[in-house]
Specification:
Blueprint lengths: L2 E7 L3 H12 L4 E5 L12 H6 L1 H20 L14 H25 L3 E4 L2 E7 L2 E6 L2 E10 L3 E3 L12 E2 L1 H4 L8 E5 L3 H12 L3 E5 L11 H14 L2 E3 L3 E7 L4 E6 L5 E6 L1 E4 L3 E3 L32 E3 L10 H15 L13 E3 L4 E6 L2 H7 L3 E7 L4 H6 L5 E7 L5 E8 L2 H13 L4 H6 L9 H10 L7
Parallel strand pairs: 1-2, 1-6, 2-3, 6-17, 8-15, 9-10, 9-15, 10-11
Antiparallel strand pairs: 4-5, 5-6, 7-16, 12-13, 13-14, 18-19, 19-22, 20-21, 21-22
Enzyme class: oxidoreductase
Organism: Ramlibacter lithotrophicus
GO biological process, one term: 2-oxoglutarate metabolic process
Length: 471
């Protein structure tokens, strides 16, 4: 039986990064992952690379190009005649991007001498201080085990995914023809991103959301700005609904639902994407064999260091508490590998950025204004619109704003919220600033390149002290 210092179960962002970092630290490391592509070959990267972050961004980019060519090029003096959509090529490009990432991770394993086993990883037992782990058709043993098995899409009760008419994030990436009418249940990140893709390509999109507020986790002012942009684009969003029976037929799906006023309605669509959250994936882990503790949600119970109830067994990413974000999983994976090595791994949950890659993009870090109010924290706020930013005007995309929230007494930055062009990139400055406990004055005093979108960040920081220069 092959023996390793560290065995990682799962090859997604948390798992493969943990394996690489462990190997860098000198540990004899193995990673087990069962994902395979359409040809049956190993496909490292987990949900994120195969049916999540990477392919969705590829489709978002392609669909944005298509919309720009059809609706926005003319204002730049670019005339496009006979515009057409080759959906097969669009999907093929997405698949190529995914494979490039799969292959990249495999290369990194070879570079860092991480042993890879293709197949399902599960606990088989424990003896003499080692854990026996089934790795596909083999059984291997390791002193330390890191579980990074990710999460699965949550299905709507009574309407399981068939990936033909009722779609998870997986099926939403592989629709073979642009639907005339597309329904979405849930207005979370996945739902809005996939809805944006297919709306740009020509679908009429209706979103049914159970909550009475739009994007409840987002700062309220930012969410309202985003909602205005989505309404203008033609995305139909219904809030406070109750979804009833969902039935499929030969040509589509019918959803019985009740609106916020209590009126019974029916939504008939060609395809239905269900995006109501994700559940921790412990399927087939055989945690009972070693007594690994799970909570009532099926997540692995860990402490703030990602330790489980078993000695030398750790868990990271979507399968444990905390936000289900790829970059959070990566940070935990690195931290655990370093803790195994006796170092002080670092993960600051207060500075984990969130991003929704719609158009406009939405990104934030830290606390929202409503959270500060609820906690009774005295704060100052400053905003700056992209409408007054020279680079945004040149881009032709002036939707949205940057918003700073700072402590009223100390001026320490408590939260930064952005809706607008390239918000996913702009938020990094705020993350760095908050990690170093900077004040809004610190950002206001830093020279930002002109013209650049980042000037809106500086101006919003200036706005905290009511001294913007360009608005």
């Amino acid at each position: 039986m092959k023996t390793f210092d560290v065995i990682v179960i799962g090859g997604g962002p948390g798992g493969y990064i943990a394996a690489i970092r462990a190997a860098q630290l000198g540990f004899n490391t193995a990673c087990i992952d069962e994902w395979k592509n359409d040809k049956g070959a190993p496909a490292l990267g987990g949900t994120c690379t195969n049916v999540g972050c990477i392919p969705s961004k590829a489709l978002l980019q392609s669909s944005e190009h298509y919309e720009h060519a059809g609706r926005h090029f003319a204002e730049h003096g670019i005339e496009v005649k006979g515009l057409g959509l080759n959906l097969g090529q669009l999907i093929a490009r997405k698949d190529k991007v995914v494979k490039q990432n799969n292959d990249g991770i495999a290369f990194l394993f070879k570079k860092n001498k991480v042993a890879f086993f293709h197949g399902r990883g599960s606990f088989a037992g424990q003896a003499e201080g080692l854990y026996q782990i089934k790795a596909g058709d083999e059984t291997i043993a390791g002193k330390h085990v890191i579980v990074a098995t990710g999460s699965n899409a949550r299905a709507l009760p009574g309407a399981p995914f068939d990936e033909e008419f009722i779609l998870s994030n997986d099926g939403a990436l592989r629709i073979k023809a642009v639907p005339k009418k597309l329904g979405l249940i849930g207005s979370g990140v996945i739902g809005l991103e996939m809805g944006s893709v297919w709306r740009r390509l020509g679908a009429e999109v209706t979103v049914l959301e159970a909550l009475p507020t739009f994007l409840g986790a987002v700062d309220e002012q930012i969410a309202k700005e985003a909602r205005k942009a989505f309404d203008k684009q033609g995305l139909k969003i219904e809030l406070g609904v109750k979804v009833g029976e969902v039935t499929t037929g030969k040509n589509g799906v019918a959803v019985a639902w009740t609106d916020a006023k209590g009126e019974a309605r029916t939504l008939e669509v060609d395809r239905l994407i269900v995006s109501i959250g994700r559940v921790p994936n412990t399927n087939g882990l055989n945690h009972e064999a070693v007594g690994l503790q799970l909570d009532e949600r099926g997540a692995i119970v860990v402490d703030d260091q990602c330790r489980t109830n078993l000695p030398n067994v750790w868990a990271v990413g979507d399968v444990v508490r905390g936000p289900m974000l790829a970059h959070k999983a990566e940070e935990e994976g690195v931290a655990v590998a370093e803790r195994i090595a006796g170092q002080h791994g670092h993960v600051n949950f207060n500075t984990i950025p969130w991003v929704i890659y719609t158009s406009p993009e939405i990104a934030w870090v830290g606390q929202t204004e409503q959270q500060l109010k609820a906690a009774g924290v005295a704060y100052k706020a400053g905003t700056f619109p992209f409408l007054a930013n020279g680079r945004a005007r040149a881009l032709g995309d002036t939707t949205g704003m940057v918003k700073f929230l700072a402590d009223a007494a100390t001026d320490e930055i408590l939260g930064v919220h952005i809706v607008g062009p390239m918000a996913s990139e702009l938020i990094s400055e705020a993350v760095v600033a908050m990690e170093f406990r900077a004040s809004s004055e610190d950002i206001a005093r830093i020279c930002h390149a002109h013209p650049s979108l980042s000037e809106a960040t500086k101006e919003a920081a200036l706005a905290v002290d009511k001294r913007t220069l360009n608005f």
